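Work Package 4 report. The design task specified in the project plan requires that, given a folded chain encoded as structure tokens, an amino acid be chosen for each position. We show below one input record used in the internal validation round.
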């Protein structure tokens, strides 16, 4: 079951919870809604929130953690020499395993019987499906790809059960908590306030992250180029030093850039 399908089911459950909670609040006072602490819509929204937000948070968390866990489990199936080798080689291997896994899903039942023949027999089959693989693959990658597919399938199934189950549980729990004096409006507005604070915090942290990234790259740049050469240099020739001739380093003078920018701005204003 895909993520979009799960989200759609959760939203349907949330809408149903809204309808039931709103109807329950009205029925508690025999239609005299002025006796309720909050308007009926707030009771419905209260149930909608409990039926959707916790489940969607779990869905997001699962999609972040599950790939990491699955990849670690698949890496454990690699031969010892791969695990003890450089990290770049292991990353290339896991990338090839992912490609093989995607290709295996495209094979029919007859073609899957050839999986036991190893990588050499599988490679032309996957090429016919549009999955190009390097020629240096190993047989263990096929088994790792099958393990990857099995773990991903299991993870998706458990995710669907957990998320949908949490959504149903939240809907039932919130509907059963509907009371005449339940401060539904206060709780709904509290959730909205928390969402606004979270959004503004993300915006602030994003800005701080951009500034920190620019500052770190600036310090890194000036660790290679002296500040006086940059601010007062008259030649802009950005290139790295040749390994065979370190004296042929680039020049990073700001004045030509500044003069060019001012000239273009002057012509544009004219």
């Amino acid at each position: 079951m895909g993520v979009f399908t799960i989200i759609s089911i959760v939203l349907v459950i949330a809408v149903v919870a809204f309808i039931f909670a709103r109807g329950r609040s009205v029925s508690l006072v025999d239609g005299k809604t002025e006796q309720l602490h909050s308007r009926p819509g707030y009771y419905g929204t209260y149930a909608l929130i409990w039926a959707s937000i916790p489940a969607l948070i779990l869905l997001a968390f699962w999609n972040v953690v599950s790939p990491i866990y699955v990849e670690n489990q698949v890496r454990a199936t690699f031969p010892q020499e791969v695990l003890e080798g450089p990290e770049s080689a292991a990353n290339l291997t896991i990338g090839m395993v992912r490609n093989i896994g995607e290709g295996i899903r495209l094979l029919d039942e007859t073609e899957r019987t050839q999986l036991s023949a190893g990588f050499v027999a599988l490679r032309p089959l996957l090429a016919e499906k549009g999955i190009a693989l390097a020629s240096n693959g190993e047989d263990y990658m096929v088994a790792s790809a099958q393990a990857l597919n099995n773990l991903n399938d299991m993870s998706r199934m458990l995710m669907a059960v957990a998320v949908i189950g949490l959504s149903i549980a939240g809907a039932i729990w919130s509907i059963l908590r509907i009371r005449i004096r339940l401060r539904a409006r206060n709780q709904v507005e509290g959730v909205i306030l928390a969402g606004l604070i979270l959004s503004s915090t993300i915006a602030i942290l994003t800005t701080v992250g951009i500034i920190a990234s620019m500052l770190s790259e600036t310090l890194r740049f000036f660790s290679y180029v002296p500040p006086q050469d940059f601010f007062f240099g008259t030649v802009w020739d950005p290139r790295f030093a040749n390994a065979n001739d370190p004296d042929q380093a680039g020049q990073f003078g700001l004045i030509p850039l500044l003069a060019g920018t001012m000239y273009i701005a002057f012509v544009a204003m004219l």
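The longest strand covers residues 236-237. Validation will be extended to a larger panel in the next phase.
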